[in-house]
Design goal:
AB_hydrolase_fold, globular, alpha/beta, hydrolase, 44% helix, 12% strand, 399 residues
Length: 399
């Protein structure tokens, strides 16, 4: 099996000379058509396009590439996550540390000090098909530095699961559950100091992990645990719900940035935002098909499908859902937030105005420092995190 998104026999893919020539032509045609069509029409876009012209053009180019390139071509162009992480560490002058998770083949990459009291389990997006680029690590690094400046310590365990089509659901969920097991049992973090988080597809699997460790373990992981029953070190049983109402068995919180909660794209926000967002219905449908590979929807691969009752008493203290007003997934995210909040009142749902899908990550490279500071969802996330950590510190001081 390909480990994480490590090189294997079929990853990264090797293209023939003819395939490389075809890819170059595709990239050139995509860039040219975007500049000619959207560059011209964008001048007269009005409310149908993104607020900022640079964002409008960039999102149009990403949509075109997503709709045109195959997963194989994309994976040829984008280096594996671990390579990007190592290059990022070199640039930021810190010692990279990658953890290989042996049971299912995932990996985790540390950012920040492992001795920090709090840790963020961060699952990346990318439709389960694309590796992480620098923008993901910049996002995590910025969060760490922001909280440090406010007097809080946080490290990030950046989870790298096997990309589709080299592995399909529920492999990615199994790898993420194993990553959380590592954080709790081997790295030794207390549950209340552990936060789950993810963007897009990463938020999808983070929500599935939360369900698994609460009241609804995934049956295939349960079956694997039965096979491992004689080897306690290999077991992935992380059922926090088995501990009753013990306060120490709640995770600190979960945040979901532009969560991909279901695969239904026939909603009002798709029609309203199709020329604003970086996502398109076509590419999302293709990535969803690769992920589930013919399996029926369930509460773990499409969290919005889970009954409302599943979210009652989930083992987390606070819940934050962030979305952009200009993203095609907005309608589904809003419906999901309403469902969860009906059973879990400590949920905050915030919509960033004039923001597309996962704007704090996707649009980082388009804005200068001052403009990035105006990305509303990023600021809400930092404030939410700081408040959670301050509340935890106050509770410990009073005990």
């Amino acid at each position: 099996m390909t480990t994480g998104d490590n090189p294997g026999d079929d990853y990264p893919p090797r293209l023939s000379v003819a395939e490389k020539a075809s890819l170059c032509c595709t990239l050139l045609a995509s860039a040219t058509s975007t500049l000619l069509v959207h560059g011209t029409k964008g001048i007269f876009r009005g409310r149908k396009g993104a607020k900022h012209y640079s964002v409008h053009l960039a999102h149009a180019l990403v949509r075109t590439l997503n709709d045109t390139l195959t997963t194989r071509q994309y994976q040829y162009l984008l280096p594996p996550t671990y390579q990007t992480y190592e290059a990022y560490a070199k640039r930021k002058k810190f010692q990279p540390e990658t953890v290989r998770l042996p049971r299912y083949g995932g990996m985790g990459h540390w950012l920040g000090s492992k001795t920090a009291k709090n840790v963020l389990f961060s699952a990346k997006g990318g439709g389960f098909a694309l590796s992480a680029n620098d923008l993901y690590f910049d996002f995590c690094w910025d969060l760490i530095q922001s909280l440090h400046a406010a007097g809080h310590d946080l490290s990030v365990f950046f989870v790298s699961y096997t990309l589709t089509p080299h592995a399909i659901y529920p492999t990615q969920l199994k790898q993420c559950v194993e990553a959380l097991r590592y954080i709790l049992r081997e790295a030794g973090f207390s549950p209340e100091n552990v936060f789950l988080g993810g963007d897009s597809a990463g938020a999808n699997v983070a929500l599935a992990v939360l369900l698994h460790v609460s009241h609804h373990p995934h049956p295939e992981i349960i079956a694997d645990e039965a096979d491992d029953s004689k080897d306690q070190d290999a077991r992935l049983d992380l059922s926090l719900s088995a501990s009753g109402d013990n306060d120490s068995y709640y995770l600190g919180g979960i945040f979901c940035l532009g969560p991909w909660v279901d695969f239904n794209f026939d909603r009002p926000s798709e029609k309203t935002n199709r020329f604003k967002d970086c996502l398109s219905k076509k590419s999302e449908q293709a990535w969803a098909r690769e992920y589930v590979n013919g399996r029926n929807p369930d509460g773990w691969n499409e969290p919005a499908v889970a009954p409302a009752e599943w979210w009652k008493g989930v083992r987390v203290r606070e819940f934050l859902i962030l979305a952009g007003s200009d993203e095609i997934l907005l309608s589904g995210i809003g419906e999901f937030a309403e469902k969860v909040q009906s059973m879990f009142p400590r949920l905050t749902f915030f919509i960033g105005q004039d923001e597309g899908h996962v704007s704090p990550i996707v649009d980082r490279g388009l804005f200068g420092k001052k403009q990035r500071a105006r990305i509303q969802t990023a600021q809400v996330l930092k404030t939410w995190f700081a408040e959670r950590l301050l509340s935890r510190r106050s509770a410990e001081a009073g005990s």
